[in-house]
Amino acid sequence: MKLSSLTNQISRVKNIEVIFRLGIFALLAAVIVLMFPRYNNAFRYHFEINKPWGYNNITADFDFPIYKTDEQMAKEQAQLLSTFAPCYRYIRGAQRQVLVVSLSDKEWLEAERYNRISVMQGRVSKTYPISEVYTPMTAHKHFGYDCARNLELDTLLTGQMREKLLATLSPTQGMVQKGEKIIGKGEIVTDRSYQVLQSLRRAYDDESLGSKQRTLSTLGESILVILFLALFVIYLYVFRPQYLRSTSTVLFFSLQTFIVIALACLALRASQRYDITLSVYLIPFAWVPILTRVFFDSRTALFLHFTTILIVSIVVPAPVEFFFIQIVVGMVAISSLSDMTRRAQLVQTSAWIFMVQSVAYTAISFAQSGAWAAIDPWMYLYFFICALLTIGCYGLIYAFEKMFRFISSITLVELTDINSELLHTLAERAPGTFQHSMQVSNLAAEAAKTIGANALLVRTGALYHDIGKMTDPLYYVENQQGADNPLLKMDPRDAAQVVIAHVMEGEKIARKHRLPEVVVNFITTHHGTSLVRYFYNTYCNAHPNDKVDETIFRYPGPKPSTKEAAILMMADAIEARSRSLDDFSEKAIANAVNQMIDSQIADGQFSETPLSFKDVEDIRRVFTSRLTAMNHHRISYPTLNK
After folding, report:
1. Does 18 map to a domain?
2. N or C end of the chain: which has fewer CB within 10 A?
3. Does residue 149 lie in a domain region?
């Protein structure tokens, strides 16, 4: 009953975790829809001048006017105002023989290009040309005597008359009748058709006309976002279930997707609200595939990139062009970062992204319109800025490493620097252990390459797996340089505990130096739960009739759970065993390798790893080959006869 209750409790916890992870994606979908810029959702077509119309034929569902463009309105207003006469009144008590205004008024009249003024005399106004209006200085020069200012601007009346005049200007020019064709599929959007389409968009601004369409449009957006994210979850479930079982990984995927989509929505909202040019192509969408590739695999990186740009394509102008360009960007980013181990690679990737974006944009513009006029030179500046921002991904790599406790190839390369403080200290305090670690790293890396494991990761783990021996280096034979072994003078049980302690000491040192958790894992698992065989056998031989407590002689574990950790365990044991051999023939080394690996398998040390039988056989072959090469014999040089 207790076991059944515990099983049910574990099952409930797992179900809660699954629901929580799926809830993260559901929350992401809701936030994305809320972030989407609220265009006129009733008219969600995207179009540009000199680009083909990418939708079905459009006909007018109702009569609507064709609105003039801002340029047309500005030009007509200027023409109309050129006939306008600002209203002035005589200053009470001033002489009226000459029309005299202040210098600032005269400059204003000239700047506004007014040709005349209207002078009010009671309720009657009389118009005078601007040439008959003087300032006190020009009046003195013209008439030869002083003339004080006698006119002042009637600001209120001038404003009223100006607005009344502008009100006579119609904002429309012509009508589109219901059922009239506006544009057909594949037709080039001309200046005229662009103006008509913009007028149709404006007509939909009528709330009584567009409220239902807006609701349906928002519903459609929500369904599309949920669909795209659901497809990504299905991909993880089928091909990468281990990612879906990790809450931190799910949060990582969601967070980086949220960041780039949020930046895109902010750019679109700013362009809409403030009427500024803030192109969505400034946003470094390559962050998503780069970050995912650095920490995970290329396939997942490309799939998540597809998901992200599909979502953004819902709201961007010219979605087909956007999707095409960003697909190319993602493929280039992933291909150029097959294994990111140097900072310079990110700069090279950014250069490739700029070049490919420019080529793709130029090609698709020509393909759609067949004209140079379709090219917007500003786009190349956007692509260049985007490429520079892509380099900023390096800072995000570091931030996500700390936030989610991931580890990148760049960090692994930095950790393998033997001149680092920790490895330098190991080489000084325990030179034999350091050399042993170097040999193990070479063996393990070669085996990892052969079976498709992470060679850089296992090399890093091998360099640090024995750092706990720095605490008491002379207890270990590789550091004794022929001196007496103090462990042999101790009780085998105590000696075993001293040897076992190097694992716990290594973990303490690693955490003190803030080594990544994945490296700490190599330290704690490189002996698994195996026996300290030498002292266990010694004690059993000395006490043949006693019941031996194996826990005294066993490492605390845990057992290896990854291919890399298992390879390190094998390489560590086999490299140490090879130093005790007298015969370094290939056959002798092969026997030693097989015996050591078979004993570890029989002890159940690899029961939690995903190693296959083929992997184990390939590892045996690599170890035998490498150890034979490392221990080859050289010919002795003859001495010179005197």
Report:
1. yes
2. C
3. yes
